[in-house]
Amino acid sequence: MTIDLSNLPRHITLAAGERIVIPLPSYANSGNIWSATCVRGHGIAQVSVELGEPPVTADLRGDGTAEPPPLMLAPEQAVVSGLAGGEAVWQLVLSRSFGSAPAAAAHELRVTVTAAT
Amino acid sequence: MALTYGDLRALIDAEKLGWQPRADLPDYVRLPLHSLGASSDGLIPEAQAPKFDLNTLGVSSNPFLAVRRAERGLIPAKAVREAFPSGQLRRLGLEDAIEGKAVPLPPDGGVPPSSIDWRNRWSRNWITSTRDQNPCNACWAFAGTALVEAMVRIEHSMWTRLSEGDVHRGVGKTCPDLGNMGEVSTFFANNGICDPGSWPWRTDTPPYAPTPDRNGRSVRGPAFDVVSIANSKNWLDTVGPLVTWIDVYNDFSGVNGTVYRRSTNPSNALRGGHFMLIIGYNDTLGAWLCKNSWGTGWGINGVGWIAYGQCRIDTFGRYGVRNTNPDPWTKRRLHNGNLYESGNGALHRNLEVAGSNGSRVQHRWREGSPPWTWGVASAFATDAAVCPTLIGTTFNRNMEIVYTTTGGRLHHWWTGGGGSGPWKDGGVFGPAGCNGVPGFVQGDYNAPGNFEVVVSVGNRLQHIWRDGGGWHNGALFGGNIARSGATLVQGSYGTPHSNLECVAVRTDGAMQHFWRNETTFAWTAGAIFGSAVSSPPVMIQGQYGMQNELGPHGNFELCVAVGGRVQHWWRWNSAGSDMGWRQSAVFGHDVQAVAGLCEGSWGMNLELIVLRTDSKLQHYWRDGSGWHEGAIIGPA
Question: What CATH fold (topology level) applies to the domain A13-53+74-114?
Answer without folding.
Answer: Immunoglobulin-like (2.60.40)
